[in-house]
């Protein structure tokens, strides 16, 4: 995957992550609703990387599968990791002062959602939305 | 983007008008919430109209800001209407799981205005300039972060 990269450490970086994702979604030919779903999911994940993961990096690029084109985005951090994934996915579960919607919501907004995490091992989340 | 830029708030009689035209980062959203609450108190506004037709995304943070603004305005006796949400944004919000409970929405500015009774029917009618320096301080509006 040819990659765009965005360092994630601040509010402004989350906005940058949204813009990079939008540009790729347009390039991939995603419909407007699909673009919006992907960009919203990435906004949630990138914010989690900044707030819960202590910062990290986003990589994004186009992916192809036969005739299909999609956008793949990875948010990676070296933070505390997620001990209880099932709970993290639950709407309303938060260890901060959010609504606890971001993580579970992001999963609903994409086609593929892959998490690698362990306590003390950081968190890497990769999502794909296909056109 | 300027890290300290703020979203302008326009005053029209007893109405406060906000048009969000940039992709706000989180601190900007928090600042807008604080500014609006402060302005409601200072001006005695009875209505707040927020135009989000330029926004191509409302995520959980911005959605919560809209809900918080509406809730705080209500406590301060002002009604809030959010207008112009794009269809793709609305569809995404539902799937994200955000209900925007307690937030009144309208298709466009005109319809939103019609939902704010103080503007439509009684522009400054029977109420003089009441003193609104009530017990609410701006600090109360700052969300815990
Ligand atoms: N990158 C991460 N590193 C460590 N913990 C995480 C990470 N992402 C999510 N979590 C954990 O999962 C929980 C749920 O995340 P979710 O995004 O759903 O809610 P939130 O960020 O707390 O609130 P919201 O996103 O609604 O503002 C978080 O409170 C946090 O404990
Ligand atoms: Mg979150």
TrEMBL record, chain A:
Residues 34-127 form the Histidine kinase/HSP90-like ATPase domain. Pfam families: HATPase_c. Signal peptide: none annotated. InterPro entries: HATPase_C_sf (IPR036890), HATPase_dom (IPR003594). CDD domains: HATPase_RsbT-like (cd16934). This is Anti-sigma regulatory factor. The lineage of its organism: Bacteria, Bacillati, Actinomycetota, Thermoleophilia, Solirubrobacterales.
TrEMBL record, chain B:
Residues 118-145 are annotated as: Disordered. Residues 123-135 have a biased composition (Acidic residues). Coiled coil: none annotated. SUPFAM superfamilies: SpoIIaa-like (SSF52091). Residues 5-116 form the STAS domain. It comes from the Bacteria. This is STAS domain-containing protein.
């Amino acid at each position: 995957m040819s990659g765009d990269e965005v360092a994630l450490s601040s509010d402004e970086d989350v906005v940058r992550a949204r813009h990079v994702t939008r540009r790729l979604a347009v390039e991939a030919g995603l419909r407007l609703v699909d673009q919006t779903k992907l960009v919203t999911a990435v906004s949630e994940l990138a914010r989690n990387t900044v707030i819960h993961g202590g910062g990290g990096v986003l990589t994004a690029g186009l992916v192809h599968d036969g005739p299909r084109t999609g956008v793949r985005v990875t948010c990676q951090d070296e933070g505390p990791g997620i001990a209880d994934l099932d709970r993290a996915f639950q709407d309303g579960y938060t260890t901060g002062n959010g609504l606890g919607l971001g993580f579970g919501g992001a999963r609903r907004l994409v086609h593929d959602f892959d998490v690698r995490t362990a306590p003390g091992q950081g968190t890497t989340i990769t999502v794909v939305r296909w056109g | 983007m300027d890290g300290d830029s703020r979203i302008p708030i326009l005053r029209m009689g007893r109405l406060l008008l906000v048009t969000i035209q940039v992709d706000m980062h989180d601190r900007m959203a928090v600042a807008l919430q604080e500014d609006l609450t402060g302005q409601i108190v200072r001006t005695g506004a009875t209505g707040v109209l927020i135009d989000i037709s330029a926004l191509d995304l409302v995520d959980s943070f911005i959605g919560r800001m809209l809900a918080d603004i509406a809730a705080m305005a209500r406590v301060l006796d002002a009604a809030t209407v959010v207008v112009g949400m794009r269809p793709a944004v609305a569809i995404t919000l539902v799937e994200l799981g955000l209900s925007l409970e307690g937030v009144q929405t309208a298709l466009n500015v005109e319809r939103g205005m019609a939902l704010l009774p103080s503007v439509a029917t009684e522009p400054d009618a029977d109420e003089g300039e009441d003193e609104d320096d009530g017990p609410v301080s701006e600090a109360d509006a700052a969300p815990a972060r």
